[in-house]
Amino acid sequence: MPDARVVTHVMDADPDLVSSDLSESIRAACRTAVGDSLRSITYFTPTRFQQIYLRSDLESDADLAGFVEHETDGFRAARAYRGSELGNYEYTVRAFENGYMTRVTRNQHGVFVTTDSITERHSEEVASALSELLAEPISETA
Q: Which domain of life is it from (predicted)?
């Protein structure tokens, strides 16, 4: 019987992954869209991530690498849904017991935003703003 091993990639935190200009643009877009409900913002690529905002009343002990590794599924979803009768993949909203997560992926980079609460209109606004900011492809050096 073959050896069935699960191979997982460990995501690497990179405090210098995002330029200060892009980081500030992402923060401003999210604050404009969701206001004081904003909990956190994390920028990621298929292999690295950087948390660019964490609200001061929250602990920084979340398993961020685990979240990011799961959210990189958005890169595969964009390819898998291409040409679907529903249209191209745009974004994902996830509901949790204590808040919501909105994920947008474009051109091998993405952002997920966590909020206390979010309306459909606000999720569309934050996703649209992030899609515009992520429209430019990046080149990642490992």
A: Archaea
